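REVIEWER CHECKLIST
Item 1: Sequence provided? yes
Item 2: Single chain? yes
Item 3: Sequence as submitted:
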Amino acid sequence: MPDLILKTTGGDRRLEFSPTQSLKEVLEANNCRVRSGCRGTGACGLCRVAVSSAEADEPTTAEQLYLSDDQILSGVRLACQVRPRQDMEVTILNPAPPSRWRTIIPAHGDHPYGRRTPAPSFPDLPKDIKRPHGLAIDLGTTHISLSFFDFSAGQWFTGRRGLNPQGVYGADVMTRLTAACESPRLAQDMRKQTIEAISDAVQDVATREGMGTEEIVKCLLVGNTAMLALLSGRNTPLLLQPAHWEHPIDCLPEDPEDLRRSWGIHPEALIEIPPPLAGFVGSDLLAGIVATGLVEAGPGSLLIDFGTNSEIALWDGNTLWVTSAAGGPAFEGCGLGCGIPAESGAIYQVKGSGLDLDFRTIDGAFPRGLCGSGIVDLIACLARSGILTPTGCFAPGFPQNGFVLPLQGPRLLLTKRDVDVFQRAKGAISAAVRVLLSLAGMGPRDLRHIYLGGAFGHFLDKANAAAVGLLPHGRAEFIHLCGNTALAGCESLLMTSDSVESLRRLTDRARIINLARNDEFEDFFLEGLYLSPWPDGA
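Item 4: Structure as written out by the authors:
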C-alpha cells in the first residue's frame, strides 16, 4: 500500500491510504483536519494543501476556479479533489481549527449508503426544509459516534467520534450509575454533559461541512441501557437492582423538545430512541443485530459487541439468546496502567516475540499506551514467548514487577495487575459465550459466523484472540471484524421507515440470560482465566 508523507512543523508523518480515497479523506481519517465547508465537493475552495505535483492528477475544474495558475504550478491543490495513487508529500496550508471530534471516514473511502438512490421517503417529517438531513447516534460508555445523512440525496456524507465526557465520573457503567443514584446533582451533570457533547458534534459538522443544524429533521439514537438512563435521568436506581436486569426498563427521555432545543435541530424533528431489551442489554445490541444480519445469516451466528459492558447475541435458528458480560473497561484500554482508549497514539497492533517486538499506533503517532487490541496482541506475544505463563504470571527469570515495552520515550509497563484485569475481562466474555452455546444446545464447532463489534473488534488479531482464550480457536475463517456495529445498525434504522417494526420482530425472538443466575458461568469463567485456547470440546 502506498504512503502519504505529511510535512508538519513537528516533523514528518507517514500515512497509509487507499487509492479510492481523496486526499481530504486520508488526512481526516488520520485526524489531520483541513478546513472545509462544502462536504468535499470542491465548491468552497478552502481545503488547500501543497503536494508534490508530479505525482498528482491534472487539476479539476473546481481547482482551476479557486486557484491561480501560479498556485497550481507551485503544487497548491484542493485536498478534496486529489486522489493519491502513489507516494506523495503533502503540507496542509489551511488547517481546520482544533476539535475534540475525530472525523469518521469509512474504510476504503466508501460507505454502504454513499451512493443510495432514490432518496428515502419519510411522510411524517417536516416539509419546510429544502435539504433535509438525518442523524444517527451511538451513545457508548466510552465514545459517542454520530453519522450524518443528506436525505435529499439519500446519502451518508460525514461522521464524528469523540470521548463520552461522562468518563470523568467513572470508566464503567456501575461506577457512574452509583454516582448518579447517590447525588442528584451528579446525575444532572452527567445528563447535561452528554447532551452538550452531542450538540458540540452537531455544531462541528455544521461549521465544517456546510450544513445548517436546523436542517436535521430526523434523529435516531441507540445506546446501552445505562447510557440511555443517564441521558433521560429516569430509573437509574433500577439498574443497580438485579431483580430488574432481565426485564425492560423505561429509560427514554420524556421531553424530546428539550433535546431538539439543545442540539439546535429542526423544532419539529422526529427523535427516535429505541427502548433497550433489558437491564444491561441495550438498543445498541439490537442495532448491531440489524447491521450484521445476524438472524438472516442462519443458525450458529454469534455477535459480540465489545465494550465496557460487552453485549452478546447468539441465533440458533429459533431463539435469539442474549446476555451481557461485565468485562470492565479493559477492552477500551482503560483500567490498566499502560492502557489508553483507541485514539491517536494508541498502540493497536503488536507483532514479534520476546523483546523483538514491532508496534503500530493509531495515526502513526508517538506511542502513548495500548488500546484493547494492542493489549491482546502484547499478552499473546509474551505468552507465546514464555515470558507469561498460562496462569498470567511472569515466568521465573523475568522481572516480576512487569514487562517494560521496548520503546523509545516515556516508559510503558505491563504489570501483573494489568494482566489480571485483562484475564478477568476475557474470562467473562468467553464464559458468557459458552453459557449461550450451552443453553442453545450448541458447541463452538456449530458457529458459522462470529461477528465482532466495537473499536476493539475492528483492530483485533483473530489468531492472538484465540491463542489467549478470548475466542474459540480454529474458527478464524468464520470471524468477521465489523467495527462499530451499533452505529451501522443505527444508520440502517435511520434510513428506513419501519424501524420500530423491525426491532419488535427481533425483541419477540429474544431470550435474556442473567449470567449471575446461571450455574455454569462460574466454572466457565474460571477456565477462561487461563491464557490458553479454549479446551477441546468446549
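Item 5: Key structural point noted by reviewer: The mean pLDDT is 87.
Item 6: Recommendation: ____
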